[in-house]
Amino acid sequence: MSLSHRYRNFGGPKAPDPQEAEANIAVTEDQQLEAFEKGYQAGWDDAVKAQSDSTAKISAELGQNLQDMSFTYNEALSKLTLSLKPILTEIVDKLLPSIAQSTLGPKIVDQLMEMIKEQPHQPIEIVVSPVNIEAIQTLAAEKLKDPFEVVGEPSLGDGQAYVRIGDTERSVDLEAVLSGVSSALTAFFHETEQENKNG
């Protein structure tokens, strides 16, 4: 049994075989290159995955934020619209009838002027509610040069009138216009309330 393994060798390392050394260097370089390529590819894949995940997350967050903003906008618009309901209802119920009443006379005169152009020098008859006879009589006297007659008809409302020249007759029905505006306003607010309830 040898004791050489217990003593230090001061002769220096044994020189490797030159062919074996070149083979080891080539294998080592190939392994390093392969390890580098694997590491580079793994890093690239991680970067692409991180970018993809980041883009997906940002897109999802942006979509959610836009949906929240849209809901908030629609909710605010709905609440604003519904808050205007009492004011608009009051305007339609109280203000528009008095405006219509004051515009009945000018509307009748406009109709008459068109009809007079088509049939000049014919007898003019204006049929209105008995409440409006005096106001229409005064306005017609100021605006019309041809002779006319204002007749009261109890079945007509305050915003209704018939204008006759010769054999032509036209009606002025501001009450129907007001009723249409009121119905449209009611339908609009009903639809808004339904949208608000249904989300």
What does this protein structure show overall?
Helix 1 packs across helix 2. The chain has helices spanning 18-118, 133-143, 174-198, and strands spanning 124-128, 148-152, 160-165, 168-173. Strands 2-1-3-4 form a 4-stranded mixed beta sheet. It is rod-shaped. It is built from 3 helices and 4 strands. By secondary structure, the chain is an alpha+beta fold. Strand 3 and strand 4 (168-173) form a beta hairpin. The model has no long low-confidence stretch (mean pLDDT 76).
Radius of gyration: 48 Å
Broad shape: rod-shaped
Element order: H for helix, E for strand: HEHEEEH
Helix content: 55-70%
Largest sheet: 4 strands, mixed
Could you name the ranges where pLDDT drops below 50 across 5 or more consecutive residues?
Answer: none
Task: Tally the beta strands.
Answer: 4
Number of DSSP helical runs: 3
Output the strand order for the largest sheet. Answer: 2-1-3-4
Specify the structural class. alpha+beta
Outline:
This protein has helices spanning 18-118, 133-143, 174-198, and strands at 124-128, 148-152, 160-165, 168-173. With 199 residues, the chain is an alpha+beta fold.
Please describe the topology of this protein.
Elements: H1 18-118, E1 124-128, H2 133-143, E2 148-152, E3 160-165, E4 168-173, H3 174-198
Parallel strand pairs: 1-2
Antiparallel strand pairs: 1-3, 3-4
Helix pairs in contact: 1-2, 1-3
Provide tags for this entry.
alpha+beta; 69% helix; single chain; 4-stranded mixed β-sheet; 199 residues; 3 helices
